[in-house]
Design goal:
mainly alpha, 330 residues
Length: 330
């Protein structure tokens, strides 16, 4: 009876996080498409957002691949067969988690340089961001894989008999969380000092408030989530383990959706671009009828000099003025 209840519980949990990761993956793909399709959204800041979206997308994809390998018939858990593909997928899944926090660190550093006005070329350093944020997690995961292979080559490498091996993954994540907190302490210090400056400089800084709030929320949410669950004792009661597992997987599976919402769907630039495209589309729908009316009036009056512009405003007013773009070399 207890085995049947456990099987039913884990079936519900699997369904729950599968739905969560599916929603996250769809949201992230939409967000990546929006940033890639709209040329006015092409800037260093949004390129960083895209890399963050990709890391969360890879996380969801590797979870799906892992479940496809382990639960091929929905009844048997195939980890007991020690399949090498499951170990590789687990490595890439942990790699994507490391990349999540690496790119969150890049978001924090990017904000700090924007607010601090450190003058270096963000476009030139974007390549370094990409190399470090994808390369350093790769070094860490290879080290973890070697340690698991030589000291704890059991099952699908999900056992925790040697706790020090898992700290190979935990220490880098805790370091990125700590460094992000340092960046935000610096940002708060700069914000307080800016309150004493003229209104023009304060208005310039206010452009980044939404980005600062979004990034700080993500760092705080993911940081608290990771710190709480990373220190889960190895030996706990069955009921406590089920509660912790359910909450942890519910939060983890929806992180990608939260990232897509904060950095894309409620992004002022994205909303402004959609509104601009919508106005342009409505103008093109009314343009043929307006042209026919204008040609009719010209034929009756005999003069074409009374042409009225059909554009609601100048091209400059349709641009993303007042919104933070990477026009400043830092």
């Amino acid at each position: 009876m207890q085995s049947s209840d456990s099987h039913l519980y884990f079936s519900y949990v699997k369904t729950m996080y599968t739905v969560g990761y599916t929603i996250s993956l769809i949201s992230l793909i939409i967000a990546i498409t929006i940033f890639c399709v709209f040329r006015k959204l092409h800037c260093t800041r949004n390129y960083i957002h895209i890399q963050l979206f990709i890391s969360f997308s890879l996380r969801a994809i590797f979870i799906f691949i892992r479940d496809a390998l382990l639960f091929t018939d929905e009844e048997i858990y195939h980890c007991d067969h020690y399949p090498a593909p499951c170990k590789v997928v687990l490595m890439f899944s942990n790699y994507s988690i490391l990349a999540n926090y690496s790119w969150l660190l890049v978001e924090g550093h990017f904000l700090y340089t924007l607010v601090n006005r450190s003058f270096f070329s963000l476009k030139k350093h974007l390549a370094w961001y990409i190399v470090l944020s994808w390369g350093l997690p790769l070094i860490v995961i290879i080290s973890w894989g070697c340690a698991k292979y030589f000291y704890e080559d059991e099952g699908c490498w999900e056992t925790r008999r040697h706790e020090w091996i898992w700290w190979i993954l935990r220490v880098p994540v805790l370091l990125t969380i700590s460094m992000n907190l340092i960046f935000f302490m610096g940002i708060l210090r700069i914000l307080v000092s800016k309150l004493r400056m003229p209104d023009a400089q304060r208005n310039e800084l206010s452009q980044y408030k939404r980005l600062i709030k979004s990034t700080f929320f993500l760092v705080a949410l993911f940081g608290v989530h990771y710190i709480l669950f990373v220190f889960l004792p190895v030996e706990v009661s069955s009921s406590m383990f089920k509660i912790w597992t359910f909450v942890e997987l519910a939060l983890s599976s929806t992180q990608g959706f939260v990232v897509a919402v904060l950095y894309c769907f409620v992004n002022g630039e994205v909303q402004h671009e959609f509104q601009r495209r919508w106005r342009r589309w409505k103008l093109t729908q009314h343009l043929p009828s307006r042209r026919s009316q204008r040609h009719g009036s010209i034929s009756h009056s005999g003069t074409p000099h009374t042409q009225v512009s059909l554009l609601p405003c100048s091209p400059g007013s349709l641009s993303t003025s007042g919104l933070p773009v990477d026009t400043v070399e830092m």
